[in-house]
Amino acid sequence: MAKILLVTDSYLPTISGVTTVVSEYAFELKNLDHSVKILAPFHKSVPHTKDTIPVKGIKNPFRLDTVIPLQFYAIRKQIEQFNPDVVHIHSPSFLGFWARAWAMHSNTKLVITVHGIPNFLAKYLPFSRYYTKLLTKLGWMYWKWFLQPSDVIIAPSHFIIQELKKLRLKPAIIRVPFWIEKYQKPRHVTSESKTVHFLFFGRLDPDKNLKLLIKGWSLVQQKNKHLTIAGRNLKNQRQKLQSLAKKLGCETSVTILGTVHEKKKADLFCNTDFFVMPSNVEVQSITTLQAALSGIPVLVADASALSEIVESSSLPHLKFKQNNTRLLAEKISDCCQNVPSYTKKYTLDTTFKSSFSKKNVLATLTKDVYNI
After folding, report:
1. Contact at 8 Å (CB) between 115 and 109?
2. Alpha-carbon distance 199 to 131, whole Å?
3. Which band of pLDDT confidence, cut at 50, 70 and 90, is reported for residue 189?
4. Is the Cβ–Cβ distance between 358 and 28 less than 8 Å?
5. Are 83 and 3 in contact (CB under 8 A)?
6. pLDDT tens for each residue of 51-108
7. Most buried of the four, 14, 81, 206, 243, by CB within 10 Å?
8. Burial class (CB in 10 A: 0-12, 13-18, 19+), 311
9. Looking at the whole model, is its pTM more than 0.90?
10. Rounded to whole angstroms, how far apart are CA atoms 114 and 96?
């Protein structure tokens, strides 16, 4: 049995790829009889447990659903009492910076997962378009410095591996995607008269490029189509998107939901024909992979880690040039015209598919990364 400290600057109740990975890692590693603690910012709506080391802080002015940790004075004692065999950092920010220093000082095995890259993270800052190039350059310099002392670096996708190779880092880089729980095989449309259903599922956040999706949707001429957009509503995106759909005259063919429970999510996935992800900043995109692994053809922006999902499928052409509304509309139209042939024949490369099984991911994590 090993003692593992998971470190994150973003945690529940915030819903994101990072919080999902950290919470699920903790659950599954404990099921494997390892001792796990989570060092994370304190949030008053989440009760403390014996498995957490909460750090108090203030609301993040850039992302109000997260907390910036500030009170570090009691951390060292709690970590030294736990005496971890592995420190696994999931963010290069406040707690990640602190835990990195502690692991180096105590000569503890240090593992760092790269959940985001500088040009993606810059988009969360105000007016970043005016200084994105500078932030990206400085960000990569920081990442190189931050990652250099680690024993192992985890990349969740091939895309991130290629980006990290440019830094010429000494530590080993291992691809460890998050495991994907697929849904039952969806129904297939057999009649051209039936409505063709498209689904986006994820945070309703500007970084998901949902305005582009609705603009592209409004240009599609086919009548028997419907788009559902669902996920946690951030920055009043639901209301803004509804207003945009109304302005563009496509509100009757677009349903925009907020947060939905798991059963509703499963229903949405199992009753859709195509999944669409217009974001340019996906490091792994868990929901897009859920759709693909469930047998739902995915249409994505040709950007970030999304491209490798489509290129590993039997429909590698279902991607559009990022931020190109016209090409997005053309691809949606193509999907509407080829529903039976696309949905019935959609498959993923066997090796790519197997890399997302929970058994394989946990084996790679514990044996190849943690060496426990």
Report:
1. no
2. 34
3. very low
4. yes
5. yes
6. 888 887 767 655 655 677 766 677 888 899 999 999 999 999 889 999 999 999 999 9
7. 14
8. middle
9. no
10. 12
